[in-house]
Each structure stands twice: as C-alpha cells, then as structure tokens.
Amino acid sequence: MMHNHKNESVFVSGDEAVALGVRLSRPHVISAYPITPQTIVVERLSEMVEDGSLVARYIHVESEHSAMSAAMGASSVGARAFTATSSQGLLYMAEGLHYASGGRMPIVMMNANRSLALPWSIFGDHRDSMSMLDSGWIQVYVEDAQEALDMTIQAYRIAEDSSVLTPLMINLDGFILTHTYELVEVPPQEEVDSYLPPFSTPNKMSLEDPKSMGFSTSPADNMEFKYQQHKAMMDSREVIKQADKEYAEIFGRSYNGLIDCYQCDNAEYILVTAGSVTGTARVAVDSMRSKGIKAGVLRIRFMRPFPEQEVRNTLAGAASYGVLDKDISFGYEGTMFTNVNSALSGTAHIPRGINFIGGLGGRDISVQDIEEMFEALRLCPAHDYTEYRKNRIRFVNMGVSIHE
Amino acid sequence: MDKPELKNFTKPESIKDYPVGPSFSGGHLVSVNSGWRTFKPVVALDTCTGCYRCYLVCPDGVIVKTEAGKVAVDYDFCKGCGVCAHECPFDAIEMVKEDLQK
Predict the structure, then answer these.
(1) Cα-only R_g, chain A
(2) In this predicted model, what pLDDT tens digit does every residue of B47-57 receive, in sequence order?
(3) Is the ipTM of this complex over 0.85?
(4) Hey, what domains does chain A have and what are their CATH numbers?
(5) Opening angle at CA A94, ends A198 and A301, nearest 5
(6) Per-residue pLDDT tens over the stretch A111-145
(7) Disruptive mutation site among B6, B16, B20, B33 for chain A (greatest number of A CBs within 10 Å)
(8) Which residues contact A4 (CB under 8 A, 6 or more apart)?
(9) A215 interaction partners in chain B (CB closer than 8 Å)
(10) Are B21 and A215 in contact (CB < 8 Å)?
(11) CB-side neighbour CA atoms (13 Å) of A194
C-alpha cells in the first residue's frame, strides 16, 4: 500500500492517542468528567484547549450524565461533540446514551473498558460497554493505540454520514490499552481535514426555519423512528467498510472493516476475541500452528452493528470455535458468545462452540491460557453431546477450584 | 396574538418521508390533547378586563389574546386545571362541567 507521508511518530499511551485523534478531528465541544482509566484523555484535551492547539469549548461538567447531556445539546444543532468515560460513568450516562441515539446525534465517545461494581474495581473488562449494547450506539473495540487514534478520526466520518447519524463508542481496554505506551503515527492535519469534512446537520439552529427538537410521539409514530434507528445502524456496515477503505488510501492503514481475521482461512479451530487480548491470541495461534494445529483468531471489531455475515462465513467451516468474553450476562453466558451463536443459527452445519469467560476485573489472560482454549476446542468435537453441553461455559484462570 | 398557525402532520406513505430523528419544523401538531378535561374554563367577556393575568399563569399556554383586547381559550389543548379561574382578579372565568355524554 502506498505510504510515503511525512507522518509524525510519537510515543504515547492509548489515552493520549485518543486525545491526539480528537484534536485532529476538530470537535467544537468537549464535555467530559474524569474517571480512571479514561482520565488522561480529558486531561490532555483540556491542556490542548488551554494552550490553543485545539480550538474548542471544553465544558467542565459535574457528572457523566451532564457530560452526555452537554454533548447532546452541542450535537443537536450541528456542532461536533466529543466525550469520554468508563465503567460507572458509562452507566451513569445510560439514560443519555439512548437519548442521543434516538435523537440521531453523531456524538463520538471514548470508553475505557473497566469492570463494574460491586466489588469495586478500577481494572479492565468488557462488562460496562456490553451492558450498553442495546443503547443504539455503534460500538468498536480497538486493539492498540494506533487503531485508537485512527478510529477516533474514522468515528466521526462514520457517525456523521447522512445515512447513519448515530453516535459511536470507541472502546479501549482499561490500563492494557489506555496506559500502555506505543509508537503511534500521527497523520498531518491537512490530510485529516480532507478525509473528514465538517459535519452538516439536518437540524441546524435557525430563526428562519425553527425546529421542534426531541419531541414526543404517540404510539402512532414511535415505531417508525425506532425502525429508522435500526436501519441506520444496519446501513452503517457499508459506511464503516468504505470509511476504512478510504482511510487506507490516504493514510496507509486498514483494519478490514467489521472483523479482523488472523490465520482463519483454513483454520479448524477459531477463537473469537475483542480488543487487546487479540495480540496474545495471535501469539498462541503461531504456537499452535508450529505444532501443526490449524488455529486462527477472529477479532470482532464492531459489536454493533454486529458482523453477522462475516462471523458466519468465517466460523461455518471450522471444526469448533471458542468465544473469549471479558463479560458475562449472569444467568446465561458471555454476550459475544450469544451474538456469535445467533449469527451461526440457521446454517446447515453449526460447529460446536465453547464460551471462555476470562479477564473479569482485570485478571490476566496469558498465551498459555489461550493455548489451553485451543486444546479444549480440539477435544470438544469428539465429546458426546451431553458432556459437551455440560462444559460449554468455562471460566478461565480461576484462582480456586469451582468443582464443589 | 402571536399564536403560530398549526399544521397537521400527515403520516407519510413511506418511511423515507419520515423526519430523520424526532426533530422537525416548528408548529406541527399531530393531535389535539385535551381528552381528560372534565371542567372547562368559560370567559365572561363582559366582566373580562383584558388584564392577561390568566394568560400569564396558564401552565399550558392555551389562553390567547383576542383582537378585542380580551382573552379566549384554546379548547384543543386546555386540560381544565382551573388555575385561570382561580387566579382571575375579576371572577370573569367560570369552570363549567363538560357534558361528557356528548
């Protein structure tokens, strides 16, 4: 791919990479409340506004609920708005999440994935964002700081597309991505400007054409608006792919759209992941491959819109698949597992799947843990069905025996 | 009187003609909203002095100024709360029971 630009390389954390991506996207309004491990994003942005390198209004709010409310006010009249949060803060703005998506406000938010209380924990897992899966936001999970910067820029392009007009949440694994330093290429402002034109809203504030904004509906009209939201999210799948393609043409980096596969083409055993653990999984795949075992990893980048077709096409030919969830819907299974299984339903041959629940509250997932997952995937097709169903949901790397 | 002219929203045939999100040109109302009113305010025009006290206190903005310098009630949206009748300094507004059989 052509790549001969005068990019600046900087050594930054995932949080700082997001802040740099936000500055390049030229938002008009930033409203945010600091929360670990997102804090550095808003610290850097407030510094950029203070030193004049980012011309935007930085609104200090008293809560995450207010952060989302202020972002909605800005976005509703056509300003480009950014906010960031994590964990308890995300849940505190839960009402606003539905409000913003229902109002078709293309706000971009960074969420530092962090566990939910109780027990109180500042460490990472995906329970915060997965519990907000139905809030009508596009959700992307990035793998490293470079992707965090690139997706921040792409996020506005996707969210503000006239066929989408839907808010977008960029998820970074708490600490693993937010606080780890990497070499990141920062594209030139002029090129970002050409990729990302100013937001043009259908609801510009105007005295000549006054609008009733955020009205209520009777049952006679409500479903039509919900259908529109669903359709916009479904249509965003093509917009996401196009945004990635054009980004690659200008900046030389592509993330392959809704999913990102490693060694899946002829793989018999495929592990489905999201976020930073994918790098660890790739090392495990290399190790399995060196032993002659055909392993692969499918990284889900977008949980909404869900890459149903891509997941089905990739997994349908496998002997078995695993889904590594840093999340659990208590009383059932991991949310990614549910979604993957749904994508496979109705296909002629459904391989056996195992749900690995791991990394809750920041617990490490090692290469060895993932090698053991692949070993389990090798054994499961031969097990009798009752035995397979009994061990379908497995907790990885528990510190104690759970066999009572 | 500055009451905007109300426009009806006719449900379109196709979803493509729906507004994008719940924001639309101002002044559209899709239905009247007064169905639960049991008492309605009736203004005695010979007693009304046009002081506009009722206009100021109406919680639903349904009291309108008339060209004759008096007031009138928009019964499409009046909920019948009675604040206007209670507040009128000249007892010019009477709350009259609706004939619900009609």
Answers:
(1) 21
(2) 999 999 999 99
(3) no
(4) 8-199+213-251 (3.40.50.970), 259-395 (3.40.50.920)
(5) 60
(6) 999 999 999 999 999 999 999 999 999 999 999 99
(7) B20
(8) none
(9) 22-24
(10) no
(11) 9
